[in-house]
User: Fold this.
Amino acid sequence: MTWLQVWTETAQIVKPTRYAVGVVARHSCAAGLNSAVPPTFTIPSPRTDVRTSHTSEKMPDMADTNRLKSFVRDFTDLIDDVGSDESRILNRGAPLLANLIAHDDWLPDPFSEPHPDHYQQYLLYCDPRERFSVVSFVWGPGHETPIHDHTVWGLVGILRGAERNTEYTRDEAAGAPTAGAAELCSVGDVTKVSPTIGDIHRVSNVSDAPSVSIHVYGANIGKVERRVYDEATGSEQSFISGYTSDVLPNIWS
Ligand SMILES: [Fe+2]
Assistant:
């Protein structure tokens, strides 16, 4: 089965368009890893194998969702303050995310459950104006994303495990995307992405256990048209990821 066949079966494909991208910015993660990546990948399967509304009955009472509520409040204040100023959002938002992932007692278990075959993306919160969204990405051992872009600013913080972030460059006239630096991101690290500072990468779980990272994006990311790229052929495919789950954590109880 080709990468396109796999992708078509599991994501919402939309009409392809061209898009210029750059290099993913590096921040707290350790650089210098082998940039070679496996030619195959697994992709998320939106809204499958998920808990439904009954999930709330199974949520552990011990999760301190007040931390997530405080983060959402502070990030809303930030967006209210700086508007669409990407640089200020990333620079001031990164320490907010770092503070959130400094503790691992707030994410309810249903939003950190791995899938045996591919990574999961659980929506934790979306701003009512869709100015930002918060998502937990969960990878099982060996799972990785396809090479993909985001089209909006993003912050990624590692909550559990370790992930390899491999940067790619590509332009309108290019064929296959070119792998750049690979960096190891560990618990507490926060990285930034955007079309301005670099937007194409592949993320892999390099730990023996499930890894969990908390992502903040400048849109309702599950509804954003984005692209995946085939490393061998250079072909691209538009997609809309959706989300794994129909429910969100109750941060208001
Ligand atoms: Fe990404």
